[in-house]
Amino acid sequence: MNRITLKNIKFSETFSEETNCFKGDIYFDNKRVGHCENEGRGGNTFCYPYGIETKEKFNEMLEYCETLPDIEYPSSLTGFETFSVKSTIDNVVDTLFESWLKEKEKKKMEKNFSKGICFGNDYSYQISSVKQGGKSVSIDDLLKTSHGITFLKNLCEEKKKEGHTIFNTNLPFEV
Question: Which domain holds residue 64?
Fold first, then answer.
């Protein structure tokens, strides 16, 4: 799958209903060969070549997709046992898009590490921030005092007991 990449992705969370609404360019062997889009209403992702000049390379990519292993989906997504689907260009593109979306969310979350404790699960997170005297206190400021460190450790333990994962990587203690 590493021969196929998506670039110039446009994602609309607002228009995503049953599936993600997105558009993007498909690259195969570092050459733009096609376009992909999903209207976000539960239908398939459509993939097609840019034009007659890319059709041959696009067809080569389609054949390459058929040689890839089946795509495994974990039971946590469906509530059922793990299942797999045959690798096709639309399934590969959907997998690449989901990876892009997770990476985008991860970067967004990491920006919040200084604001508070980020906790949650694989699909969403929340921020537990600290206020003193009506003003937000950064994690960096809390880490300057032993009281602040103790407070953060206790907060992390509380969230873990509730079943959450702590995502912060800027804490000097194990969570």
Answer: 4-107
pTM: 0.78
Nearest CA-CA partner of 4 in 77, 71, 84: 71
Domain assignment of residue 172, yes or no:
no
Q: What pLDDT is attached to residue 79?
A: 60
- Note the pLDDT tens digit of each residue in 61-91: 999 999 999 988 776 555 667 788 899 999 9
Least Cα distance to 173 among 142, 136, 131 occurs for 142
Distance CA 168, CA 83 (A): 32
C-alpha–C-alpha distance, residues 50 and 61, integer Å: 13
